[in-house]
Amino acid sequence: MRSTPDLSTANWRKSSYSNIDGGDCVEIADNLHGVIPVRDSKDPDGPALVFGAAAWAAFIGDVKAGGLDFGAV
């Protein structure tokens, strides 16, 4: 069983792809060893999705390479 990481020391930053009008605000914390938590900045006390660092790096690599079709969502 996996334990939930302690996010109390997370240094959150807004994604550069977030909407500047206050919508679609995604924050990540990349200062925690081995995990990357992601949350909605409009709900900072709400839940966070936590990804393994390798999985997050692969996802970001695919996004930058244009390998994901977000228009189909």
Word description of this protein:
- The protein has one domain (12-67).
- The longest helix is centred in the last third of the chain and has 12 residues, at 53-64.
- It has one helix spanning 53-64; strands at residues 12-14, 26-29, 35-40, 48-52.
- The protein is built from one helix and four strands, in the order E-E-E-E-H.
- It has 73 residues and is an alpha+beta fold.
- A four-stranded antiparallel sheet has the order 1-2-3-4.
Give the gist of this structure.
The protein is of the alpha+beta class and 73 residues long. The chain has one helix at 53-64, and strands spanning 12-14, 26-29, 35-40, 48-52.
Task: Please describe the structure with a list of short key phrases separated by commas or semicolons.
73 residues; alpha+beta; single chain; globular; 1 helix; 16% helix
What order do the strands of the largest sheet run in, or round the barrel if closed? 1-2-3-4
Secondary-structure class: alpha+beta
* Continuous helix count: 1
Q: What's the N-to-C terminus distance?
A: 32 Å
List low-confidence stretches.
none
The succession of helices and strands, N to C, reads EEEEH
Average of per-residue pLDDT values: 85
What topology does this entry show?
Elements: E1 12-14, E2 26-29, E3 35-40, E4 48-52, H1 53-64
Antiparallel strand pairs: 1-2, 2-3, 3-4
